[in-house]
Structure formats: C-alpha cells, structure tokens
Amino acid sequence: MANNRSWDPTAQAVIEKAHEQGFSTAFSRAEGMKPCPIGRAGSCCSFCFMGPCRMVGKDREQLTGICGAKPATIAARNLARWIAAGAASHSDHGRDMAIALRETARGKAQGYQIKDVKKLHATARYLNVKTEGRTKEEIAIDVANAALAQWGQQEGEIICLSRAPKARQEVWRNLGIGPRGVDREIVETLHRTGMGTDQEPEHILMHALRTSLTDGWGGSMLATDIGDILFGTPNPVRSKVNLGVLKEDEVNIVVHGHEPLLSEMIVQAADDPEVVAYARSKGAKGINLAGICCTANEVLMRQGVPSAGNFLNQELAILTGAVDAMVVDVQCVMQALQGLSTKFHTKLITTSKKAKITGATHIQFDEHEALPIAKLIVKMAIENFPNRGKSEIPEELDDLVAGFSHEYISYMLGGVYRASFRALNDAIIEGRIKGVAGIVGCNNPRTVQDQGHNYLTRKFIENDVLVVQTGCGAIASAKVGLLTPEALQYAGPGLREVCEAVGIPPVIHLGSCVDNSRILTIATNMVTEGGLGDDISDLPAVGIAPEWMHEKALSIGAYFVASGVYVLFGGGPSPVEDSPEVTDIIARVWEEKVGGKLDFEPDFDEILRKSLEHIEKKRRALKLGNWAPGKYARTFITPQELARRGETALQE
After folding, report:
1. Which regions of the chain are under pLDDT 70?
2. Domains contained in the chain, CATH given
3. What is the 3-state secondary structure (H, E, C) of 482-512?
4. Which of 165, 378, 485, 498 has the least C-beta neighbours within 10 A?
C-alpha cells in the first residue's frame, strides 16, 4: 500500500509503520477525504454571501451565479485570487528579509552580519543606490529602504523589471502589465475579483499575470538577493538527504518552513561550545540539525545542513521518534504536526508572529534578539532529549550536491576572468544540450510522492536536457541520487559531455521556492549572452510543477508564463477545467500576448512529450542544428564500454 503513496522506499517504510500503528498522516487523510469536484474544477464561487454558488448543470452556457456571474468569470476570479495569495506569500518573505538587512546595517539585529559585500554592491547598482565612498552599512540601509519601497510604490514600475531582457520589458509595457508596486497589485486583484467588479475573464487574468510579476521579479528576487547579502551567496556543497540524517545519539532539531532568518541563527546557536557542552551534560554526543521543505534548502545551500526531506516528510520525521524539537516558521507547515507530536516526545515550536498552532509551544522570533532566541530554542530541544523513547531511524540516506547560485554557474562556465554563460549557450547552439527544463514545486498526497519529479527529471536528462530545480522538487531528486555527478550515468551523450567538461551534475539545485528568481536571472543571462534569441520566450526551455499543491506554485507558474515560458502543471486535473474559455485564455491567448502559456496536464508522459516538442519547436525557430559527435566532439563511450575495453586491455 505504501508504495502507492511514495516513490521513496524510506518514506514507504515509515508510512507503513504509521498505518499499522493507527497514526494519521497526510497520505491517509487524502485517501479518506475526496476533493469537492465542483470547487476542484473552479466552478464554485464563494466571494459573497448570496452564495456560495455552484456552477453545475448540463447547459453550461445558461449557468450563472445569483449575481449573474458566468462560469468563466468565476473560474478566472478563482485563479486570479490563488495567484495573488501565492504572490503575497513570497512577497511577505522578501519584505521581512529587507527589514532584517536594514536592522543589521543599523547594528540592531543581533547575530547577523553582511557576509557578501560583492552581492550588496551588485544589488545596490540595480536599485540605483550609490556605493562610492560609502561604508557597507550605509549602502545596506539604502538598499533595504529601496527594496521596501517596492512594496508600497503606487506608480511607475517595480525596479527589478529592469533586469529582464529589453524585449521582455517592451512586451510588458505594451500590454500595460508591468507591476507598479507589490502590495498595490495584490490588493487590486482582491478588489477586482470581489462581487460586482471585474467581470471579463481575459481582463481579470491579464491582471493576474501582472500580480504574479510582483512575485518573481519583485518579492522573490529581492528575497533571494538580500538572503545572499546576509548569509552568503551559495557555492556548491556536499551534504546528505532523507530521514537517515537523524541521529540516535544526538539532539535532533528539525527546522521547517520557508524563512532563513531564524534557521541561520539556529545553525549558529547549535555550534556554540557552551550549548554543545549543555547537550553533552544531558547525555547526547552533540547537536544534529536537519531541515524540511524550503527552510531545509536555505540552510543546505549556504551551510551544508542535511535535509530530512520535502513537504510530505514532515510527519514522517516525527514518526521516527527521534526528533527532539521541530522548529517552524511560515508556509507549508501542517497543523497535524501538533497532534502527532503529542504521541511522541517531540516538542513543536512555532516562532513567527504571523503563525501560531493551537497547542504548540510559541517562542516569538525577533531579529533584534535573534541569537539569544535561537539559543533558547536549542536548549529546549536539549532538555527534551532525555525524554526520548524508542526511536526507529531509517538507515537510508543519499549524497547530494547543492548550492548553485547563478553567480557560481557563470563562474563555473567561464572561470574567474571570463565568467559568463557562453559555454552553456554554445552547448545549446551546437545541440549537445537540447534545452533546459525547470522542474520545481511541491509534493501533493493526491499523487505518489516524488514520482513526477523523479520520473521527469530522469527522462529529461536522458534526452540531453539540462534540469534546474528548486524547492521540494530538488529534494525529491536528491533522495534518489540525482543531485550528484554520479547521476551522469543516466544522462544523454551530449549533456554528459558538457557536464563532465564543466564538472557539474546534470541536475542543478538552485535553492528554495523563492529562488525560482535565480532561474529568471539565468534565463536573462542566456539571452544577454547572445545566440539564443532576443527574449526569454525564444529559449528552448520549459517550466514544470509535477506535484503542485500550494497557491505559491500558481504564482510561480504565472510569472514564468508572463516572462515568456511554457509552463506545465501535473499531478491532477486543472483547477479551471470546467471553463473552456479560461482554459483557452491561459493557453492560446496568453501565448499570443506574452509568449508563454499555462497547461494543466495530469499525465507525466504527456508532459514529457509536450515539453520535448516545445523545446524542438524553439530550436527550429532559432535555426539550431542537431549535435553531430563526429563534427563537434569525441564519440560518446558508455561506462559499460569503457569497462569492457579495460578488461580486454588487461587480458591482452
């Protein structure tokens, strides 16, 4: 039964244990609760209290809500609100990062420091902040204030749009969808979609694209850059992944959520000699940190902290009986963790002023007292260690390589003095690499955990398509060894040759969900480098969310579409499938206007087929050739053939 819930054998074993012992998990709850078919298909309107109105009936042309709203209007409003909510999640993250940077520069945020001055200067340049003759603290204060202004700005365009290719900026300006300010567009979406306001589906959905841009080219991009300034721009690190990272003889602290402000301090606190000595006084050999979800990715990318897994691993970690404290902040944290933690000794600790869970211990995080608060939390976990009963930690764990920022990729491809994306562009032009696929997003218990991520990743690299990943998708690949150079055994000959020459795995981990903005920056750099068209929409590239479940995924998908990318969502039916009109708008109409389109496709083989077809279509439009090994490079030799030749040579 468990193998129908997860591709990961480790997860399967823990799920089976939970089932046998009668513990509720997201997997069992998903089986017991069928989704409402009306709401799931976008045919329910609950935006006023004359309803909710359900758009059911054979003659859909005659259906209306009590106010007269047509099914297409209702579906468009639903989709727009989901996108706005997703944009709000990531943008709020960025706002908190900017505030933390400002307080750090003022000397008021205990434990933080400006770690990457080069990134500070680079960010200052695009925010039009002067740097010459100024201290890093003076620059950082102005960078933070300039960033914060992007949320409240009422006119003009958010400043990060200027980082996109010129041709893409013109598309946005001609359509009038360049966001004026982050908060303004999110609020306007809520206004437009309220009862009796915007009632034309295409008009609603074009503003949804505008709102999504406040995420990718606004809040997320600023969150990524400020995170790099405060905690360091990632460079490749080796680490471990899966539930086997938990340790029997150490205090296990799992950080879970999405914001690095607290988790980075937890890392510092756990390394403090006084705190480590306290752990030993309680009978532990030391303190072991692990992450879940995007907090895992934040501390993995910069500190090499191992990951205990992705979204659907959060309950499974507690089920091992080995977690002394699970420390959470915001987003993707299941309320079910509290009930489950009471069945074990695990202490669930909430930390955000925006998020509490009934029954959990709440220790409110404040960046002004960051390190003392982090030490308090770590000491609570240490004090809970003697209460641990029998634990069952799976033995399985995998190696991974993470930490590929766009800055490092540029250096990696060209070296210190010639850092650029030239090598990648040339490999695509010559056909060694056919294109690029971004495989990102959540887990969803209504599909087999990790199946879509891992199946598609394997198939793409087999077809000489470079894969870039973020979030839970990256952790899924790590759990099956796809984030190591050894994964080259699955890669096609062209992709393999390029990766061997450069020294990278065929699947590149770029960070957390907000770090999808790094993919936008990479795409822009590829366009700027030349040879692959004038706009992101010209690139042979696709974006895929195979197992999505959160509104943030819709926001991410929409801002990639608005940037000119073909985006496919898998793992289940379309949330607007009952509206042929809206389905046509997000595909055909959006593609005509912005060059990208949104496609909901539940079948993974169809996602693969459509993606490869799209990549070939873009290659033909650019008049790119096919790779000819005899012309461009040595003939590819499989590892098996190399081994055979070696054996033959020894015999001779």
Report:
1. 1-3, 628-652
2. 64-231 (1.20.1270.30), 243-387 (3.40.50.2030), 408-632 (3.40.50.2030)
3. CCCHHHHHHCCHHHHHHHHHHCCCCEEECCC
4. 485
Angle (CA) 291 604 242, round 5°: 20
The amino acid at residue 91 is: S
Report d(CA 213, CA 219) in Å as an integer. Answer: 9
CA neighbor of 101 nearest in space, from 109, 93, 89: 109
pLDDT of residue 154: 96
> E-assigned strands of 170-305?
237-241, 251-257, 287-292
What the block records as the tokens of 594 is 């912005």
Say what the pTM is. 0.94
User: Do residues 600 and 569 make contact, with C-beta atoms less than 8 angstroms apart?
Assistant: yes
Is residue 263 within 8 Å of 277, Cβ to Cβ? Answer: no
How many Cβ atoms sit within 10 Å of the Cβ of residue 122?
A: 17
Burial 127-149 (b: 16+ CB within 10 A, else e): bebebeeeebeebbbbbbebbbe
Cis peptide before 52 (omega within 30 of 0): yes
Cβ(407)–Cβ(236) below 8 Å: no
Whole-angstrom distance, CA of residue 185 vs CA of residue 478: 36
pLDDT attached to residue 95: 97
Q: Are 537 and 565 in contact (CB under 8 A)?
A: yes
The answer to whether residues 52 and 45 touch, using CB atoms and an 8 Å cutoff, is yes
- For 377-424, how does the pLDDT look when each residue is reduced to its tens digit (9 = 90+)? 999 999 999 999 999 999 989 999 999 999 999 988 887 777 889 999
- In the block, tokens 């303190």 appear at 287
Query: CA 161, 167, 171: angle at the middle one, nearest 5?
Result: 75
Q: How far is CA 51 from CA 60, 77, 531, in A?
A: 18, 15, 54
Separation of alpha carbons 350 and 361, rounded Å: 6
